[in-house]
Write a structure and sequence with these properties.
CATH architecture of the largest domain: 2-Layer Sandwich
Largest sheet: 7 strands, mixed
Number of helices: 18
Helix content: 40-55%
Strand order of the largest sheet: 15-16-14-13-19-20-21
CATH topology of the largest domain: Nucleotidyltransferase, domain 5
Distance between the termini: 64 Å
Number of domains: 2
């Protein structure tokens, strides 16, 4: 009987289900939106019941469109956005879900940095503190929303909640917990002294048991099977932080390989044998049983294009509906028609803030009367790539090699954007076959978890292939270098304006 693997990928805006055969071919894919709630400025939340409902809808759609027997699914794996926090109460019912786009803890981070707590915490987790970090959100809830905090029975992550709904098991994996600032990264243990620094000594009582990503944590329950259409007893693995899934699904598994993900977050990462102690780098997290990811990221990537299209491309959306194509195809055509020049406007992609400037906002600069919508779209594409470049430069500054990279996420679906990545970063950019790279990474881990492949390298060899390689255009490099230098100047100059804007709001 032919066997298949089901991968689930839960980001900040969508829940996706994808079915793969053992050669890695995508048999069926379904994406369902999940609403973001903004109860207050800076607060980014979601309805956990809607998240589960939409995940079930995606699974059912994949099963229906593929027409396979659910008994043929050998296992399933789930990846999800890291950080934020998903809470169950003491009766194991949904309590609150905060996304990794949230900025409510900004003032608390500033306060702790002034007190020197960030440096003390960095010695343990090698990422310090930042607003959407799980540990900081828990600390914020404890100080500002004690009624919610006192009800916490379990604190874990997006994919862990889906796993709980599927299996009834409360668990987490090492990649997510290490990426959330809650673990002593070198010892791979939840260190009581680290929790004390966060003021969260009691967190040991509500953090679940830890597993590695390929470990089987349970089976699909009868209740979950009825809702999803899956077979009861289907093995479910622990799953992983979506940055790990994105690397694996892009066929990145060797030490020193680079992986870029242009999605809601700008993810820029390298696999390393040992964690890197360098405060200039955003994060170290656990990759597998031996290795780590050196990670630079911020919420500055393709979500900027989604916002621009939603707010300013109504005619293009209508036209795309008439043509039966994606509105982003029309955006790509417009950007492809713009030639690189010094006159083009700039875009700072900080809709959800910036790691180096807590009060940062997005904005266009240098717009003139002769600029068109196409010029503004080009600025958005370029600004996102410049944000990626700023992260890559920090990785290089920490001594990491960056000679080539695989690109995944929404940006990888655009030829013009992928080529821009190659031209701006001045390295070859590899694009893996298939669109649902995160779901494939989860499926790869599921395959290893049920011993369909002996280890990850053989699973990647069997299930992953490179679709395209974009090489840099040397003629464009000088122009992009000059524009990037000006982009950096704008970021620096705007820092005071952002600070004053924050004061004005207060």
């Amino acid at each position: 009987m032919q066997q298949y693997l089901l991968g689930l990928d839960n980001g900040n805006t969508m829940t996706k289900a994808a079915l793969f055969d053992l050669s890695g071919r995508e048999i069926a894919v379904c994406s369902e939106p999940v609403s973001t709630l903004y109860p207050q400025p800076g607060h980014s939340e979601r309805d956990m019941q809607e998240l589960w409902s939409q995940s079930c809808k995606a699974i059912r759609a994949v099963l229906k469109s593929s027409a396979i027997n659910p008994e043929q699914i050998a296992a399933l794996g789930c990846s999800g956005h890291g950080n934020g926090v998903y809470l169950l109460d003491k009766q194991r019912q949904p309590l609150k879900a905060i996304q990794s786009l949230d900025s409510r803890a900004t003032d608390l981070v500033d306060e702790w940095q002034r007190q020197g707590l960030g440096e003390q915490i960095y010695d343990y987790n090698l990422q310090g503190i930042w607003p959407a970090q799980t540990a900081m959100l828990l600390a914020w809830l404890k100080r500002n929303d004690r009624a919610t905090y006192d009800q916490i029975g379990t604190a874990f992550f997006c994919k862990d909640y889906i796993n709980y709904c599927l299996t009834g098991q409360l668990c987490c994996d090492y990649s997510d917990i290490s990426g959330a600032g809650l673990m002593h990264i070198s010892s791979r243990e939840i260190e009581p002294r680290l929790l004390e620094l966060y003021g969260l000594s009691e967190a040991l009582s509500y953090l679940p048991k830890l597993f590695y990503s390929t470990d089987i944590i349970g089976q699909v329950t009868e209740v979950a099977a009825t809702i999803t259409g899956l077979k009861p007893g289907t093995p479910v693995i622990a799953g992983m932080f979506d940055v790990v899934a994105g690397a694996l699904g892009s066929a990145v598994n060797s030490t020193g390989e680079g992986s870029l993900i242009a999605g809601t977050w700008s993810i820029n990462q390298l696999i390393v044998d040992q964690p890197v102690n360098n405060p200039q780098v955003f994060m170290n997290c656990i990759f597998d049983q031996q290795r780590y990811l050196l990670l630079e990221s911020s919420a500055t990537s393709a979500t900027n294009l989604e916002w621009f299209v939603r707010e300013f491309c109504q005619r293009e959306q209508e036209r795309a509906t008439e043509l039966g194509c994606s509105v982003f195809d029309l955006c790509n055509e417009k950007v492809a028609g713009i030639e690189l020049s010094a006159d083009l406007p700039f875009y700072l992609p900080f809709l959800h803030g910036c790691n180096d400037h807590q009060n940062a906002r997005a904005g266009f600069h240098g717009v003139a009367a002769w600029h068109t919508q196409a010029h503004l779209l080009h600025a958005v594409y370029e600004g996102v790539v410049f944000a990626h470049l700023s992260h890559v430069n920090k990785l290089i500054g920490a001594g990491a090699p960056f000679n080539s990279a695989a690109l995944a996420g929404g940006g990888a679906n655009s030829e013009v954007w992928s080529q821009m990545f190659a031209d701006v970063l001045n390295v070859p950019i590899k694009i893996s076959t298939g669109r649902e790279i995160g779901a494939k990474g989860a499926a790869l881990c599921a395959a290893v978890g049920v011993n369909l492949f002996p280890e990850m390298s053989s699973a990647i060899t069997a299930m992953c292939s490179i679709d395209k390689i974009y090489t840099p255009n040397p003629a464009l490099l000088p122009g992009y270098q000059k524009r990037y230098q000006h982009y950096q100047r704008l970021v620096c100059l705007m820092s005071e304006a952002w600070r004053l804007h924050a004061v004005l709001e207060d």
